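A quick aside before the break. I want you to see a complete sequence-to-structure record at least once, exactly as it would be stored in a machine-readable document. Don't worry about memorizing anything.
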Amino acid sequence: MGSLTYDGRSSAEFFLQIERYPAQPGAARKYSAVSIPGRNGDLHFVEQAFSNYTKTYSCYFHKPGVSAPEQSHAVKGWLLGSGAYRRLEDSYDPDYFHLAAFLGPLDVENILNKYGRCELAFDCDPRAFSLAGETPVSFSAPGEIVNPEAFPSTPLIVVHGSGAGSVTIGGTVVTINAMDGELYLDSENENAYSLSAGVPVNQNGSIYAPEFPRLQPGENSVAWTGGVTGLEITPRWWTL
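That is the input. The structure line, written in tokens, reads:
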């Protein structure tokens, strides 16, 4: 038997068990196909992106002393409390997590009014994020960072220093016109900001970045100039 954690809460809280190993569906690359009259086959215009997919768990639950309908209400409240992406982890692939949304419906088979059986289908972002990629890597001197996965990641970079300078990661340069203490560069959202009492303050006007750094598979050089004194990179490694 296995377990899952969704939105920070474990299935064990709800006496819910996974009955069998879930399938490992694969994400499909986004593309468009064009058929040209008189020509065999189609032309594929492939994007550097992937589509969502559905991950399904076959489950049952039984809480001693609680009827199946009552426990069903608790399970539905947990899973359907938000339609937004939430963190999904399970005991079958413990080194990775997904961003997933449970959108329902949740149909529960009532067995003897004591047991509930159901299928939990999550709409998943195609990326499986590595837990190792959540650990920040600190640089007090230029160096390199190695991406162990097969796909480029979009890191969160904390720049330390003051004044003007530049940051170069894997050949991508971000020019900093001014900073005071810490500057955050979020490559996922292509956003620059500082923090004031924990609240983000937009700093996109303080930088010049035609594109934000990505960490390509393999070695990526890390360097800086000017008033930058060091970096902290949370790499956000991912695979499919």
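Two observations worth writing down. The helical segments are 68-79. The chain has a mean pLDDT of 93. We'll return to this after the break.
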